Amino acid sequence: MLRVCPLxxxxxxxxxxxxxxxxxAVFHTEDGDxxxxxxxxTHQDASLADGWVExxxxxxxxxxxxxxxxxxxxxxxxxxxxxxxxxxxxxxxEIQVELSTQQPNLPPGLxxxxx
Length: 115
Ligand code: FES
Prior knowledge:
Blueprint: E1 2-6, E2 15-18, E3 24-28, E4 34-38, E5 52-54, E6 57-59, E7 66-68, E8 85-91, E9 94-98
Bound molecules: FE2/S2 (inorganic) cluster.
């Protein structure tokens, strides 16, 4: 489990980039849901934690591909590959992330250890 922060420290509407390899983006939506996906867009090196959340989707800040926070699926080009989605739990008021065991889809030019 990756320990993120106290739930009280991530207000609804906020997102957080968490150091991991590759980094993880944790979202607390306006509706009060918590999601975690890989932070790095699969198109180029952009941080999805810096993107715009609408409903259950985040729009990449660089070229506006949108990723589903629940599944990591991408539904708008130019990104073509999904990001990984991770399971989020709150334990004793602390947000924790169970990292996916799948291989991450990193953008061209990036590999594990370089992001
Ligand atoms: S870097 Fe995310 S869509 Fe291009």
